[in-house]
Structure prediction request, 730 residues.
Amino acid sequence: MSIAIDKENRLFSLNTAHTTYQLFADDNGFVHHLYYGRSIGSFDMRFTEYYSDCGFSPNPGHIHMQRDFSLDTRPQEYTGCGIGDYRISSLSVSNGDGSYSADFRYVGFAVLDGKYAIPGLPASYDNGGECETLRIDLKDHASGLELALYYGVFAEKDMITRCAVLRNGGGNPIKLYKAASACLDLPFGKWDMIHFQGRHCMERMPERTPVPHGVLTVGSDRGTSSHQHNPFAILAAPETCEEFGQCYGAMLVYSGNFKIEAECSQLQSTRLVLGISDQRFCWTLEPGEAFHTPEVLLSFTDGGLGSLSRCYQEFLAENICRGAYRDTPRQVLINNWEATYFNFTGEKLCSIARQAKELGVDMLVLDDGWFGKRDSDYSGLGDWDVNEKKLGCTLTSLIQKIQDYGMDFGIWVEPEMVSPDSDLYRTHPDWALSIPGRTPVQGRSQLVLDLSREEVVGYLYSCFSNLLRCHEIRYVKWDMNRSLTDVFSRGLPPERQGEAAHRYVLGVYNLLERLTGEFPEVLFEGCSGGGGRFDAGMLYYFPQIWCSDDTDAIERLKIQYGTSFGYPIRTMGSHVSAVPNHQTGRTTPLHTRGIVAMSGSFGYELDPQKLSREDKEEIREQILTFRRHQDLIFYGDYYRLTNAMTDDYFTAWQFAAKDGSAALLNVVVVAPKANPYPIHVHLKGLQPEAMYRETESGSVYSGAALMYGGYTLPILTGDYPGFQCRFERI
Ligand code: DGJ
Prediction:
């Protein structure tokens, strides 16, 4: 049993393999957070609680003589609202009588078998016997608002999931202005927050900041999780590094507007609150209605950031990603985007496919431009009829030709969008998000369809299910190329417009659930101008996501490094592209581009016709190399050996088989040096007493020697040289 309950003291201990999370409900019904950290079993941690009469921290009315009790100083599991806790609130509500108040008191608990589900939202799942759920029920007796706090305990995975459900059990409508998914109070210690900021073509750059007195906020109000911030944050002790030290991860399983807030309080405790962003959010709960918040995945380790990442990587791969492709090796694909952009014909595509097949590629992906009037990004989105004139044939016969080369066929779509210059927009202008009387803001000359409306989702479902039903399409790249504005739905009354942004996300999830459910044989890859929606919510539907529109190998080192903190390597779409690189103009060796791209879902994004004979030969070898290493890369443990943000000489990373039987070392020199000093790295994840052969040279080393003594690389010279070697246990 991972959930231990001391009924008399209303004390709940959630035990995982290496951690304990503990909470209790006091005699007044307030639910305190007691402890989250390394395992302490079910030992009652109330002895750590600290009470003081803290000036200007008020006392709840019915116990006002208890001057050392204030919600302003109590570590809590979820806050109420307007009742004397001035730190970050989990909730903001207004009641039927106009008051802004919620005072939740413990009502009871339930232990449920397996993992709870969240209606309409992606959430982690149990593969059978992995999870137990604790539900804590609370109620605000004055308004009737009920709060259920769910805790999913994945004991062996060291993961605790949380979500909150708010239900109007009263007789009047209640408005939610903020409804966080979880609040995590750390009563003691100093913490840094590591979050992941960025921009288009440079996503998920880790940034580490001490949690201040005041609120550190990151988030997105762009309608998607965004390139600029990622719904994942880490609280790390100041001394925590890759291999040592305490750290907590908190990841939202959500793809829309979000907010992560951290604050160090007057008594030096730290509070982390995360959930849907409260910007322009307002959700009306009629009597009897419930609101489900998105899930949060929490984990703790004292083994450093590397260990925390491996925990998330494994959990997302096994308990978030779903479907036939979850655990399977992926085909090597070639995508025509950087080869042709919009300028292609069916013949050109066939020529790319034919030549790519000769190199060992398995699938051709036809990117943007195959439908409607779509010869540039100024028109055509929404008109999903095949442009046969451009292809010179039907889609069916194009696919047939590709298949005749022995290749599978994949296709690009951007269902959530509409171009103002399209028949769809001319027929249904009201289907786009826009505000009556205002000219909608455009992004990439396109508008966003209002997926909060059932008829829009229904239309998109029939359009894309038809495409997939009528054609032998094995892969879909689902793109989304702008941030939301004018978030006003003509399907909602004025007083409910604060629901539109979340309802949009629910509409996207609904569409994805239907399409991925109906076409399990299709591999869906997510994309939002690269990595603008790289989050656990999307990974529930897409087992891989195009990591970034920046395909420059040297920039990718940082992007893939940052992404690796929370996300599995095999979920990162990464391709070898042509040089000079189209985004940076930089020229890197093909060998280096291969090493970087194969740390992900591997493919190519170039025109094979433009390759030299030597390059073609090298690509043939590269694909064989990827196939040899794919198991290790996809299912092995991943180690960051350098800090790609600050180590300016070289970047190194490694994979080790979970049973210690093999390792793959990767190094790229980012700033070659004259009179260079040696590149020396310590391998990880080997068995100290086992012997390993380096497969290229045949040299033999002990695991201990490679891990504790390290491995010195040959001198690497030239522009951005790369190095890769494999060690096999003998
Ligand atoms: C953005 C994507 O990230 C690119 O790979 C490409 O598919 C373009 N959109 C097409 O418009």
Summary: The first strand starts at residue 3 and ends at 6. Residues 250 and 298 are 5 Å apart (CA to CA). Residues 337, 367-368, 412, 479, 481, 527, 529-530, 546, 549 surround DGJ (CB under 6 Å).
